[in-house]
Design goal:
8-stranded mixed sheet; FAD/NAD(P)-binding domain; 31% helix; globular; binds flavin-adenine dinucleotide; D-Amino Acid Oxidase, Chain A, domain 2; 18 strands; alpha/beta
């Protein structure tokens, strides 16, 4: 810690730590837990700039998902079968880890099934998925104890869509605040120290082999022996050439609706539209593909263009006979790239990156944390 206006004691408290994680989202916290379990005698700190706000981990849709059939086919077309199936498996395993470690009750998890739906005009998409389903299921049979995708008639859901959905029975929904809080409690319980209001400005190599961190609006200074950057797209601040881009996701939640005819999580348009039941409300998000360039931003606005598209989905497709009103709206930042897999890397000595979590980072987070810490072997 710099000498600035700090007491002798403050300086001694904060001057150095063995292992410092920047970013207090799901990846940062689980990385810290893995570190503390592996190195119980070392000090492990998480430095987070906000008490609340910013973390996608607390601004997401709470889908406990690992990929609809349409999304997997889209992934295959971009990254090839091997990588696409591997990513799917990582997400599946990651989710099972979270459920096993924390229990469904603690994270508000319900295995409600994930439905891929097909509004009018997307019939050819359904045909394409149908044709590919036997091969997909065959390829994924080792991942699941049950078949990955099945067809189901969803007429009773009273949506303005085709009657057939492609369902992933193992997917579900969780409550994002319960998950992050539970993981945070776990981190504290194993001895991780978490400090907020620590907005890291710069990281610089230190002669001793560690890293010196400096902060916004403070002349504090911390020496970290090992540094783990878990700030998703915000890692660009220190590594501008990193292959990751910010991608804004916008979300709306309706006021309570008297009778919703469905439960579960839903994907449409290759996953670019997603919605779920949330008690008596509907949460809907996405539509980034309407304005890819504009949504490639760290800006936190909810924009009229995306909002009106999401409201159109509610009014015309999801609950066509209901007059919906919006109660909450927000946005969050994801870390994306055409290479869809996460960056888990030892960038140089004592410096590790766990970023680029894509649109299904909840499920991936535990696996990324484990792999990142494995790199310290
Ligand atoms: C709108 C939206 C909906 C989503 N829906 C889902 C979903 O339903 N299911 C799913 O699996 N995934 C979903 N995701 C993706 C998922 O939420 C993320 O992939 C995941 O939460 C990423 O976790 P993380 O820890 O890497 O990043 P984050 O949770 O974003 O945490 C990064 C942290 O780093 C901190 N930070 C950044 N810069 C600094 C700095 N300079 N100093 C200190 N701290 C810093 C930030 O404040 C933040 O708290 C969604 C994302 C968004 C935005």
């Amino acid at each position: 810690m710099g000498s600035g206006n700090f007491s002798f004691w403050e300086q001694r408290w904060m001057e150095r730590a063995d292992q410092v994680v920047i970013g207090g989202g799901l990846v940062g916290l689980q990385t810290a837990i893995e570190l503390k379990l592996k190195y119980p005698h070392k000090s492990v700190w998480v430095l987070e700039r906000n008490a609340f706000g910013d973390a996608a981990s607390l601004r997401n849709a709470g889908f406990a998902c690992f990929g609809s059939a349409g999304e997997i086919l889209d992934d295959i077309s971009r990254m090839g079968e091997d990588q696409a199936f591997q990513l799917y498996e990582e997400r599946y395993k990651g989710l099972q880890d979270l459920i096993k470690t924390y229990s469904p009750e603690k994270i508000g998890y319900e295995q409600s099934g994930g439905y891929e739906i097909f509004p009018s005009g997307s019939e050819s998409e359904l045909d394409h998925i149908r044709e590919s389903l036997p091969k997909l299921n065959e390829s994924l049979k080792n991942v699941h104890q049950q078949v990955a995708f099945v067809e189901r008639n969803i007429k009773k859901f009273e949506m303005n869509v085709g009657e057939t959905a492609i369902v992933s029975p193992s997917e579900g929904a969780l409550q994002s605040h319960l998950l992050l809080r539970t993981v945070r409690h776990h981190a504290l319980a194993v001895g991780v120290e978490i400090y907020t209001s620590m907005d890291v400005q710069s990281i610089e190599k230190h002669g001793s082999g560690g890293w010196v961190l400096r902060f916004e609006k403070s002349d504090a200074q911390i020496l970290a022996k090992d540094l783990f950057v878990c700030t998703n797209a915000w890692a660009l601040k220190w590594f501008p050439d990193l292959e990751v881009e910010p991608a804004r996701g916008q979300i709306l939640v309706t006021k309570p609706i008297p009778s919703i005819a469905f439960r579960g999580i839903f994907h449409a348009d290759k996953g670019y539209i997603y919605f779920r039941s949330l008690g008596s409300r509907i949460l809907i998000g996405g539509a980034r593909n309407k304005q890819f360039a504009a949504e490639n931003t760290f800006d936190s606005a909810v924009t009229p263009e995306i909002k009106s598209e999401l409201v159109r989905w509610l009014n015309e497709i999801i609950v066509p006979n209901v007059n919906v009103e919006i109660d909450n709206e927000w946005s969050g930042v994801m870390g994306m790239h055409q290479k869809r897999s996460p960056i888990i890397e030892r960038k140089e000595e004592h410096l590790y990156l766990g970023v680029r979590m894509g649109g299904m980072g909840v499920a991936l987070s535990s696996q990324v944390a484990k792999k990142l810490v494995k790199l310290t072997d």
